[in-house]
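Journal club side-thread
Mid-discussion, someone asked how the predicted structure for our own chain would compare to the paper's figures. Pasting it here so we can look after the session.
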Amino acid sequence: MVTNEQRRRQLAREKFERQQQRREAARRKARLRNAVIAGGLAAVLAAGAGAYAAGAFSGDGKKNTAADASPDALPSAKKGPDPCARPAPGSPSAKTWKSEPEMTVDKSASYAMELKTTCGTIDLKLDAANAPHTVNSFDFLAKEGFFDHSKCHRLTTAGIYVLQCGDPKGTGTGGPGYTIEDENLKDSKLKGNVYPAGTVAMANTGQPHTGGSQFFLVYQDSQLPPQYTPFGTIGPEGMKTLKKIADAGENSGAGDGAPNATVVIDKATVTRS
């Protein structure tokens, strides 16, 4: 006959075993999630295939500890109300070019880029002195209407914190048909392999000199190797717009997916002063 004490011990043991099973399931799910994050961040999404590479790191450079979390603590894809307006009428560009445009940028002049998006204006100050080829390309593409009506197709919210734009296809596979050289990779602002909040930088395929038209906007300090041309800074209004977009989250629940906000660049302009 089973005594009350034996029954109590049996129930306690069964409860412990269930807890162990749940914890192991949570670890497996978190490992898979982190692999998705690492793989996604390492995927190439710029001039025809690429973006930027990074492992699953938090903003302070420490490894994620989500593998130790309970199932309830793991992220899930949640879609709230879209904070952005309807896009302006028009279609994304289908133009491509065989080679980089002729250099016309004045390295001693000041250049600014304004992205009028469905979520608000993103104002950029461009660094022609240290990234002349990149600024020259963006000046050319903006004048050609290349960015107009294009979606910002990617938002990352775990480990690195960026919004990626510049692909008229809206898939991460588009580009202008040419590539430009890397520049300004020894910028003093890139300390400790961190791209600080407010940086705008080029995406690439993970190989040198493969930038095209895709770029990313850093809305929170992000751990990244200095392999992506920093070519400007984001103004105060732009940071407010990015916060609105980031607060709406992304659609995968894994920290790397399409933004829940419908982010479309209605008009991109570059001005010289």
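Post-session note: The chain has a mean pLDDT of 82.
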